[in-house]
Amino acid sequence: MENELHRLRPGSAAIFFLLKRYLLSSWMARRRRLQSTFGVALPIVGIAVGVCAFTVVLSVMGGFVHGLKKRLLGVEPHIEIVVKDGFGRVPASAALLEKIPTFSREIIAVAPFMKSDVILQSSRKPITAVLWGVDPDRADAVMQFSGYMSSAQSQLSELSKDSFSDSDDNELGKANQARLGKFPTLFAGDKLLEVLDAEVGDRLTLISTQPDEGLGGFAPTQQPAVVGGSFQTGSLTHDSKVVLARLELVQKFMNAEGEWSGVQVALKEPLDAEQIAAEMNKQLASEGLRAKPWTESNKALLKALRLERWGMSFVLYMIILVGCFSITITLVLAVRRKAREMAILRSLGLRRADLGLLYLCKGGSIGTIGVLLGLLCGLFLLQLISHVPLSILQDAYPGRGLPVLVSWKELLGVSLGSVVLSIVAAVWPAIEVMRIDPVETLSDRGV
Amino acid sequence: MWSANEATSASSTDLTVQAKSQNWAVEVHDLRKVYSMGELTLEALAGVSFSVRAGESVAIVGESGSGKSTLLHIVGALDSPTAGQIRVGGLDPFRGTDRQVSFFRNKHIGFVFQNNNLLPEFSALENVAMPGLILGQRFEDMRQRALLLLERVGLSKRADHYPGQLSGGEQQRVAIARALINQPVLLLADEPSGNLDSRNAANIHSLFAELNRDFQTTVLVVTHNQDFANSLPRRIEMRDGRITADSGT
Questions:
Q1: How far is the alpha carbon of A346 from chain B, nearest alpha carbon, in Å?
Q2: If you measure CA to CA, which chain A residue comes closest to B180?
Q3: Taking CA atoms, which of A179, A311, B4, B73 is between 20 and 30 Å from A278?
Q4: How many independent structural domains does chain B possess?
Q5: pLDDT digits (tens, 9 = 90+) for B12-31
Q6: A249 contact partners, CB below 8 Å, separation of at least 6
Q7: Residue A115's domain spans which residues?
Q8: Could you tell me the CATH number of the domain that includes residue B119?
Q9: Rounded CA gap, A148 and A158, in Å?
Q10: Contacts of B126 in chain A (CB under 8 A)
Q11: Chain B residues touching residue A32 (CB < 8 angstroms)
Q12: Is the ipTM of this structure higher than 0.90?
């Protein structure tokens, strides 16, 4: 018979019944107990406001940072493989191009490149620029330049080595061919053309900054060329400085045939560049090469953005924490107010642990309702601000709403974190309710 | 109508059967309870011994502070003794963990307090069903039994009313129905008519007599009401934590 005392007793039905009543239903029955209803609503609103703010602020920040990174990245490769000491060139090798993609599954494209400072001379004025030599067959997969072309020519493959003959069917090409004869073509940034006071079809002269020894002594190498197209990447650095030409032309111009400045690598996820570059470096070190992630040249800015995001997350978590404090206060007050009811439940056979569990569930439920409410409000607000243009931001985002990037992974983390915090916030009330002495309370000697 | 036969035959516990076979519902031996408040000590129970047969109705009377309520709380496993032995239905409730003692209180004890102590946010029906829910039953399963008990105490039409919508006498009748929902081996009542007018008090007294007769539940009542005490078959008198008279011995 003693075994009967040791039988497990499921009290979950009662806990669920009590929880449902205390939180959700029978508002009619509680008409005269508005204080109790208000007491539960307050922390729910607190959590909801915190989660809503988190959703909106981080998504707007995400959208802003995404846009910024897109601009920063522009046509930059995610990783550049160059010689280890930073000077000198990589020997051109088809084997290297085949080997690099085997370093990581994240690598989606590779392309060799040449890069050199040049002076660009139009009929009106000279200007310094950066000459990029690209392999039209491979470079687009790494830099997506064709997507940024603003002139009639829209493919890197239109870059011709020595004449316009490749684009004979193009009206502009025919006209220029007739006017200028056979010259290699260049693609230039629209801002660069603006400064040069030149346009598509104009003839330019490339002048090397490294003099070459000729018959009359040292003299800079010169190469006439024609502007075959223009691009607009949105990055001022590229649009005002870069001219593109065929890789072979630049190699010849720089007297570096059989050499590359390096190899550009495109990844599935640009933000993993640092980690993948580190892995690649382990294998490239023996060949005297080094993988340089795109983040290396923007480290300070990216660090500042990350810090700002952390700071913002901290502030927003503080808002949620304040909401959780209100759960603690509300539930502690509820324990005091309902001490007699809790003592009755104890006298009816509810365990101390059941009462504690009831309050933990109450905290968790308040948190869950608050989180769901906050997410709904936050997502609704995001819809609104991403579609409705804001007059104060017309300069930055003319005619459209704010850019928004919702990170579901982050929102899930925040939501789960908030529910856990809500449960933690209910620990003290749970301990308080477990301390209630039913005899003291029911005999009016105590609370 | 939930008949006494249904109540005792359909779901009587092993404990009830055992209690009946042993014929003792409550056995108390040299029970002591001392409250300590710093250097001060108060001996609420100073060696109380008595036994109650299964199905018996006993009134415990005495002046305020004589230890009646303390005795009732300890017998109901709501409070623990400082010393002494106690067995209810053959079980020692204090030999288990909080889980086991709570189960004992839920399954085998029914409490009726002076202030009815109903849960204000639950209807009469829900209040009556609550001990069943704590036992692990579903509300739908308890509804019918709770309705039968409310009918038995004359409140079937007030099942959906909340405690605030019931009179003092009605609230106390709901509390009695709640105490019987799990068919306990022992019904403990602490001044059940203490806050009622004479008419309602008389109704409650006769209800206790009927329930004891119909359900064969052992009843232990602490009361100041001499008429009520005299109406019960056995009477235990207490003073200063001791039993001074017991009509059952």
A1: 8
A2: A348
A3: A311
A4: 1
A5: 344 444 444 457 789 999 99
A6: A133, A161, A162, A184, A223
A7: 107-267
A8: 3.40.50.300
A9: 14
A10: 17
A11: 164
A12: no
